[in-house]
Amino acid sequence: MIEVTKGVGYLTIATQGKVDSKKADKYVFESLFATITNANFDKSRIREKIYEGLKLQDEIIAVAGMDSKKLPENCTWRPKSDNEIEAWFDFTSILAVENADLRSLRELLTYGLKGMAAYAEHAFNLGYENAEIFAFIHKALAALTNRETEAGELLNLNLE
Description:
- It is a single chain.
- By secondary structure, this protein is mostly helical.
- The chain contains eight helices and no strands.
- The longest helix has 26 residues.
């Protein structure tokens, strides 16, 4: 679900001004919050959120008229079955990042985003939203989509 969520963040940044990001904002904070420790162990609910995110990606790509051949895999991967979802995990696993420093910076940023999402969801449920927070979350997710993002950029995002 995190990989699909990264794709939604990437598309939201790439289409800024072309599509309304409210739906993407909500999907992103719900998905990130759902993956924090002890929050959700319901595989079927996680699978539903994955398919919801894939549908949202398709909507954003269609509305913005994007060429899917030019997008990162996080934005174009579509499973043919539920089994392919778990198989994709091996390919996208954080353990696939060999450099320990990069892996640590990527995970630090991911967990920071999860914490931000938890607060964003609570605030949203109370009727509060902050576009700057959502913009940062999408920006950070877009950076995480690129496996070539350098340590300096990841460090700066973590500090931001």
